[in-house]
């Protein structure tokens, strides 16, 4: 953590979803490896993990050179590309893609991090409104709807494929702030991705980006918290200092 000066004037929060509030359980690599195994192909978990990290990231990096415009069709095609790159040697790639697409659209495939429920409750108790704002596609509605800590946020989800722009396009963050009904300099953007959740949000003019550093990466120069509850406690303390 570096500086949280002036946080008593923060009026709202934009929260990333994957890696910030939820994670796949079992892991992405395990689920992909199992899909391959159902077609008789053995792929090491570590190899799947390496390929997924590379192709998911490359796909985003390529996009960042372009307009970052998106919709449901573009997301669907993007995931087809990623799956084909991660599992290139399958006898029936369409079947594997359909299975993986359906799997990650189900709430049973995900879990909330344990601090998320208490963190969201504390933010609500101190009167700081939240928007979950994600580069996931519309499957997030079904996923969040099945996770008890997140069901209350489904009506206000901000999803890039529905907004028309992906993070880190400025229009995405502006849309999320407008959804909160707040000026951008009163809103924190919080998430696990330094580019999409911290630097992109700050370039778009939001008050601050905060890294949720669940893997303890401790990146230099970024404000970070190990989990959502810690961040909520700091915001609550800032508010009570301002009232005194
Ligand atoms: Mg994330």
Structural descriptors:
Rossmann fold; DNA polymerase, domain 1; binds magnesium ion; two-stranded antiparallel sheet; alpha/beta; 47% helix; 2 domains; 6-stranded parallel β-sheet; 244 residues; 8 strands
Would you mind describing this structure in some detail?
It is a single chain. With 244 residues, this protein is α/β, with parallel strands linked by helices. The protein has two domains: 7-21 and 113-243, HAD superfamily/HAD-like (Rossmann fold, 3-Layer(aba) Sandwich); 26-108, Orthogonal Bundle (DNA polymerase, domain 1), CATH 1.10.150. 47% of the residues lie in helices and 12% in strands. The protein contains ten helices and eight strands. A six-stranded parallel β-sheet has the order 5-4-1-6-7-8, with helices on both faces. Helix 1 crosses helix 2, helix 2 (45-65) packs across helix 3 (72-86) and helix 5 (116-125) packs parallel to helix 10. The longest helix is centred in the first third of the chain and has 21 residues, at 45-65. The chain is elongated, with a radius of gyration of 18 Å. The relative contact order is 0.18. The model has no long low-confidence stretch (mean pLDDT 93). It binds magnesium ion. The site of magnesium ion has 7 residues, from loops.
């Amino acid at each position: 953590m570096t500086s949280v000066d002036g946080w008593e004037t923060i009026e709202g929060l934009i929260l990333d979803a994957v890696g910030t509030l939820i994670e796949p359980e079992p892991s992405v690599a395990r689920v992909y490896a199992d899909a391959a195994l159902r077609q008789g192909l053995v792929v090491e978990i570590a190899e799947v993990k390496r390929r997924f990290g590379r192709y998911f990231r490359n796909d985003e990096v390529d996009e960042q050179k372009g307009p970052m415009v998106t919709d449901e069709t573009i997301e669907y095609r993007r995931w087809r590309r990623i799956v084909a790159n991660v599992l290139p040697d399958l006898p029936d790639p369409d079947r594997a893609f359909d299975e993986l697409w359906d799997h990650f659209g189900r709430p049973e495939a995900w879990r909330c991090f344990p601090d998320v429920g208490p963190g969201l409750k504390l933010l609500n108790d101190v009167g700081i409104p939240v928007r979950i704002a994600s580069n996931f596609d519309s499957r997030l509605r079904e996923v969040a709807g099945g996770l008890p800590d997140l069901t209350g946020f489904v009506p206000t989800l901000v999803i890039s494929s529905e907004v028309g722009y992906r993070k880190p396009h400025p229009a995405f963050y502006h849309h999320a702030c407008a959804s909160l009904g707040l000026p951008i300099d009163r809103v924190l953007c919080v998430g696990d991705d330094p580019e999409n959740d911290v630097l992109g949000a700050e370039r778009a003019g939001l008050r601050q980006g905060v890294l949720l550093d669940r893997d303890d990466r401790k990146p230099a120069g970024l404000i970070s918290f190990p989990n959502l509850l810690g961040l909520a406690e700091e915001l609550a303390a800032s508010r009570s200092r301002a009232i005194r």
